Amino acid sequence: MARLYTEDLSIGYGERLIVKTLSVQIPDKKITTIIGSNGCGKSTLLKAMTRIISHQGGTVILDGESISKENTKVLARKMAILPQTPESASGLTVGELVSYGRFPYQSGLGRLTKKDYEAIDWALEVTGTKEFKYRPVDALSGGQRQRVWIAMALAQETEIIFLDEPTTYLDLAHQLEVLELLQKLNVEQDRTIVMVLHDLNQAARFADYMIALKDGQVVKAGRCEDVMKPDVLKKVFQIDAEIGRDPRTNKPMCITYNLAKGE
């Protein structure tokens, strides 16, 4: 059994359910990517699994316990999330922003300890942002800022990291830079990575496990080879796709596609 999974999870806003009786497992120490069209419930699922929003039914289980019963600081030591649109860091230096990742470990006085500073420096080092430590976050490029936000998540020292579209608004080089960093964290430090990605080929290239959603339900979950199939993509995206192999990674990739006829 996986450390993290949902059972019959239902999530909504008001009376409208976005995710309906959803049961998924997140493989330990692997990279999981979630794909689906806009509004299908991808971001909503991430928020519920990290307790940013509440759910109307079912449960999210982590280490055998419902996360709804977990102490907030204890939960924040187990999982971190980088939302799709991080809050403004205006007026903060890089080091100050990354230090916020140490909140779950701080006492009532809120003072940083030697261990906190060591964790901050390590997070800056591993994300290649140490040289920016004293620079304003606002002065960085989009790719640099994204790496700093990831550094803040890493400073939490959690084994599970959620990221909602971490490559949004980045150019191709910076997209690859961020995804390769996350892959390195997974391979070298056994971090469990869960991320929503729009680009199908990036999702397949960097994932060990994929979850395809449509209207708040799982269409297919499993290995990339099982999810990146024409029938699955037709159901999820209403496209008629040609699937081949990436010549560099041997992962499945969408070569081309048309709108599915009759859809």
TrEMBL record:
Keyword set, alphabetical order: ATP-binding, Cell membrane, Ion transport, Iron, Iron transport, Membrane, Nucleotide-binding, Transport
SMART domains tied to this protein: AAA (SM00382)
Keyword Iron-sulfur: no
GO CC annotation terms, alphabetical: plasma membrane
UniProt membrane topology term: Peripheral membrane protein
Any GO molecular function: ATP binding
InterPro entries membership: AAA+_ATPase, ABC_transporter-like_ATP-bd, ABC_transporter-like_CS, P-loop_NTPase, Siderophore_ABC-ATPase
Main location: membrane
Domain ABC transporter residues, every copy: 4-240
Biological processes, Gene Ontology terms: iron ion transport
Region forming the signal peptide: none
Any Pfam family the entry gives: ABC_tran
Domain of life the protein comes from: Bacteria
Subcellular location: Cell membrane
Protein name as annotated: Iron complex transport system ATP-binding protein
Organism: Brevibacillus centrosporus
